[in-house]
Amino acid sequence: MIVWLLIGTLCIFAADILLKQAVEEKISPGEEREILGGVVIIRKVYNKGAVLRLLEKYPKVVKTASSVCGMLMLFYDGVLWSRKGRWLHKAGMVLFTGGAWSNIFDRIVRGKVVDYLGFRTKWKKITKITYNLGDLAIFLGAFLVGLGELLD
């Protein structure tokens, strides 16, 4: 079973890395492409900080802290995955870990995270926020972990 959890994590990681690379190659900075009837916006935005550009002036701090947290996360996953049950929690950590490591990879290799997904809303500030698949996986994973904790 651990193999399937690892494969799921690697699939999230690889999908986001491949999408980031496609955006790097095909989208110019400032360019926006609408898909799904304009609800989703594809654009290229770089983030040297953490979520919502937090600590963007300190990319080395963000890179170091992310890498340390990523290593701790892998250790936690190993302990969690070796135990029986807790499937919702495990599924959440698969998403969370895959998404986190795709962003950590970007910070280490590119020196910044490539974000590419926006959502058109009636609120301009929210429409301007740009995500990537890894960010969405982290959010959904955290939700599933929290739900798993409530249900256990």
Automatic annotation (TrEMBL):
Q: What InterPro entries does this protein map onto?
A: Peptidase_A8
Asked if the record carries the keyword Membrane, the reply is yes
Pfam families registered for this protein in UniProt = Peptidase_A8
Keywords from the UniProt entry = Aspartyl protease, Cell membrane, Hydrolase, Membrane, Protease, Transmembrane, Transmembrane helix
| Residues annotated as transmembrane | 61-81, 129-148
Q: Which family is this protein grouped under?
A: Belongs to the peptidase A8 family.
- Protein name per its UniProtKB record: Signal peptidase II
